[in-house]
């Protein structure tokens, strides 16, 4: 088992010409922790994941993985420590499940190693862990959306890293497959001791499955804590721009949100002035 690693973000700022995205983010994710990032579109959630995966470099500040500054690591060295499941991926016609999952071994095996036929034990474990081994020789294009998402999760697991970043892993899935993916992530986190950070739009999933919720607004962290502490009517209004109520699940005790109606956003206010 690969040891889980902590992720530390220190004073990170990042933006594009004329459009700042992150405006000074500090975040310390402990090894083995399962954290959900929430917030409106454009608040910087996905950008923060890409910075933590080493795909982007901050304009200022730094990101540390297991105590090492990502700016000092090569892309391949970073990929041996942290895996990112993107929100979507282009289709690869004719590729089988086994071939796609094997792509996750690039960081460990290198370009020459990828040319060798056969799977190593890490690929077999990744296929088994998400329950797709019996699909190994099927083409990915022939799978349903939920099945493809499980295969993509297996590809990320095949990197055999201690940290797993998930960008909206339930997007485009029906409720059955949303719950299937979330429960699989929670199970794998426990079995493998992974550090997991996931961007979620569904606050109900964040409140139920994460042990920590971090809310971003306008490129800054505005709330951070256990779901029972953070998920409040104030959070719904201030961060998600929704008026609503928050109760408690009678069995599990996690927060349950009852959104009532949307609140005006700054962009909307500017349009009607």
UniProtKB/TrEMBL annotation:
Native organism taxonomy: Bacteria, Bacillati, Actinomycetota, Actinomycetes, Kitasatosporales
Keyword Ion transport carried by entry: yes
Domain ABC transporter stretches: 7-243
Biological process according to GO: iron ion transport
GO cellular component terms, A-Z: plasma membrane
Membrane protein topology class: Peripheral membrane protein
Native species: Streptomyces genisteinicus
Highest taxon in the source lineage: Bacteria
Alphabetical keyword list: ATP-binding, Cell membrane, Ion transport, Iron, Iron transport, Membrane, Nucleotide-binding, Transport
Name under which the protein is recorded: ABC transporter ATP-binding protein
Compartments where located: Cell membrane
């Amino acid at each position: 088992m690969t040891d889980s690693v902590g992720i530390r973000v220190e004073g990170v700022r990042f933006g594009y010409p004329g459009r700042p995205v992150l405006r000074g983010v500090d975040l310390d994710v402990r090894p083995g922790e399962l954290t959900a990032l929430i917030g409106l579109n454009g608040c910087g959630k996905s950008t923060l994941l890409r910075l933590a995966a080493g795909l982007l470099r901050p304009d200022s500040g730094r990101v540390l993985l297991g105590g090492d500054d990502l700016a000092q690591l090569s892309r391949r060295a970073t990929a041996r420590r942290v895996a990112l499941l993107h929100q979507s991926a282009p289709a690869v016609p004719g590729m089988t499940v086994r071939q796609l999952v094997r792509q996750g071994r690039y960081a460990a095996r290198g370009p020459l190693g990828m040319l060798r036929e056969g799977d190593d034990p890490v690929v077999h474990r990744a296929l088994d862990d998400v329950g797709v081994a019996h699909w190994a020789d099927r083409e990915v294009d022939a799978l349903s959306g939920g099945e493809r998402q499980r295969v993509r999760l297996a590809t990320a697991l095949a990197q055999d890293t201690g940290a797993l970043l998930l960008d909206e892993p339930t997007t485009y899935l029906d409720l059955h497959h949303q719950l299937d993916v979330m429960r699989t992530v929670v199970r794998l986190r426990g079995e493998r001791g992974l550090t997991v950070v996931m961007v979620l739009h569904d606050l109900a999933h964040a409140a139920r499955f994460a042990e920590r919720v971090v809310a971003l607004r306008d490129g800054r962290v505005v709330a951070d804590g256990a779901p029972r502490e953070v998920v409040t009517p104030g959070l719904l209004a201030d961060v998600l721009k929704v008026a609503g109520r928050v109760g408690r699940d009678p069995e599990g005790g996690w927060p349950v949100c009852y959104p009532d109606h949307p609140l005006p956003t700054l962009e909307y206010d500017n349009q009607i002035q």
